[in-house]
Design brief:
- This protein is mostly helical.
- The chain has one domain.
- It has helices spanning 2-16, 20-38, 44-60.
- α1 packs antiparallel against α2 and α2 runs antiparallel to α3.
- The longest helix is centred in the middle third of the chain and has 19 residues, at 20-38.
- The relative contact order is 0.12.
Length: 75
Amino acid sequence: MTTAYFDILLGIWLMVNWKNRIAYVLASLHLIIVLAVSGIDEVTYRDIGLLAAALALFFDMGLPGRKKTGISPAV
């Protein structure tokens, strides 16, 4: 039951868009713990996908304090 409350609070935190880097790290750690504790079942694949998404969002933000540079879209 505590996991559900944590998931709801984390989701609200991400919707508020405040200090997302911390939220992504907490989401990743939470999913790693869930995967380690729950074992392998039909929900495992969903959790692995969510973990990959949380890590992708974390690494996509770039380093703190540095400007994100990317390829500008063609005009």
